[in-house]
Amino acid sequence: MTEAAESDQPTPDYPVLASPADGIPDVIADERALQRAADAIAAADGPVALDAERAAGYRYGSRAYLVQLRREGAGSFLIDPVALPDLAPLQDAVGDAEWVLHAATQDLPCLTELGMHPHALFDTELGSRLAGLPRVGLAAVVEHYLGITLAKEHSAVDWSTRPLPEPWLTYAALDVEVLVQVRDRLRADLEQQGKLDWALQEFSALTSFTGPPQRTDPWRRTSGMHRIRDKRAIARVRELWLTRDAIAEEHDTAPGRILPDATIVELANTAPRDLEGVRKAAGGLRGASRSRLRIAERGLNRYADRWLDAIIRVAAMGTAQLPPATVRSDAPPPQRTWADRNPEAAARLGFVRARLGDFADAHNVPLENLITPDTLRRVLWTPPKTFDDNGIRARLAELGARPWQIDLAAPLILQAPMELPPETPVTGE
Questions:
Q1: What parts of the chain have a pLDDT lower than 50?
Q2: The sheet that has 66-71: what strands, in order across it?
Q3: Boundaries of each HRDC domain copy (predicted)?
Q4: What are the respective helix, strand and coil percentages of the chain, to the nearest 5?
Q5: CATH number of the domain that 408 lies in?
Q6: Cα–Cα dist 327/216, whole Å
Q7: Do 311 and 351 share a domain, yes or no?
Q8: What is the domain range of residue 348?
Q9: Within 13 Å, how many C-alpha atoms sit on residue 357's CB side?
Q10: What is the pLDDT of residue 285?
Q11: What angle do CA 332, 334, 339 make, to 5 degrees?
């Protein structure tokens, strides 16, 4: 589990939970042991705490390299999904029981790949946001509700390592050790604040989450693309990015460990004509850290012929084969341009955001959890043709807003001015 970004607020001294109460479970890596674990889980009752560890930054893709489960009455289990890529016995054992996860969207896609799907879930990270906690990483939430500290020093290790070191297994088992206890305290807190129904609607929506939407032209998100203006250089970024992705998949390595984005941009801008020129491209990386320079130099040397082939392919392309400099999007334009391009929409957005902000402050909820910024911008930039309560509610639902969010946002949108009063100045944010 990757910890959410936290502020540097001082933390009181809490007792440290250093080891699981029942000791470190053996890692399950064969079918018989998996079935025994499934039988124990099926015989117990109550919610099931789950977590998954990936090797982000080390391996290609986001597969799970360890799965942790705990159920009261059955104990904790550590599963090796490399040896056991089909966890259907666990899915059958859990059945309709509620899953308890922290930051569910991180783990649900890789658990889906293993054949596991929740019928109901409780996300302690999202619930903590709705409850107004200032810090929502697992360690901070455990401290808040249970008054104990979890050690998190192994959160960014390479979980594809085999065998897994014992300290890492301790860390992994602790991630599910007290998760159900946190769930119980947090649920009571949400109910006391009158937010439990909000949370339950959010959790219900997450049961169908399988991963973020696929991006069109993901290579366009290469860091440093703003330095590329020429269409042929843009094509070189595309070919180099696709080449790097293919190499990364072949070697099951994170793309950034094959070649940093900055090196792709440097190659795209300089377009070296020979292998020697490719190998020297790292010299153009200003301000790069030593580790990034080492990765760049290694990748340029090891795969120099493939980078040069990508550059040569672009040189042979006709103008019609080059990608456009920009891609049309159905999303509203950048908010900073609204005041000039559509002052009425800018005024509507300012009106609704101010009132949502007041509500967020009064109820101690992050503004983005009341309704996603993209949903709000889409509705206010292009209001529904039938601008009444039904029309607004239908458009919000179409964009994925939950009923509680619609009940909150629709009346405010309906109150927003459709026209500017005479001589009303509008400024973009």
A1: 4-5, 7-10, 428-429
A2: 27-28, 75-79, 66-71, 48-53, 98-101, 120-123
A3: 230-321
A4: 55, 5, 40
A5: 1.10.150.80
A6: 9
A7: no
A8: 335-415
A9: 6
A10: 77
A11: 95
Q: Six-digit token pair at 247?
A: 């190499």
pTM score over 0.85? yes
Looking at 186, 206, 226, which one is the last position of a domain? Answer: 206
- Residue 132 pLDDT: 97
The answer on 242 and 202 residing in a single domain is no
**In this structure, are residues 34 and 82 in contact, taking their beta carbons and an 8 Å threshold?**
no
Q: Give all strands (DSSP E) within 64-171, no chain letters.
A: 66-71, 75-79, 98-101, 120-123, 149-150
DSSP reduced 3-state for 191: helix
Q: What angle do CA 249, 253, 257 make, to 5 degrees?
A: 120
Query: Which of 73, 80, 61 lies closest to 22, judged by CA?
Result: 73
In a domain, 175, yes or no: yes
What is the C-alpha to C-alpha distance for residues 138 and 5, in angstroms, rounded to an integer?
A: 11
Q: Phi/psi of residue 70, each to 5°? A: -150, 135
* First vs last C-alpha separation in the chain: 35
At which residue do the structure tokens 């070191």 appear?
A: 165
Amino acid at 4: A
d(CA 426, CA 324): 33
**What confidence tens digit (pLDDT) does each residue in 210-240 have?**
888 888 899 999 999 988 989 999 999 999 9
DSSP state of 282: G
Looking at residue 420, what is its pLDDT? 61
Domain with residue 78: its CATH number is 3.30.420.10
Rounded to whole angstroms, how far apart are CA atoms 206 and 125?
13
Q: What is the DSSP letter of 266?
A: H
End-of-domain residue from the set 181, 206, 231? 206
Say how far apart CA 100 and CA 183 lie, in whole Å: 7
SS3 261: helix
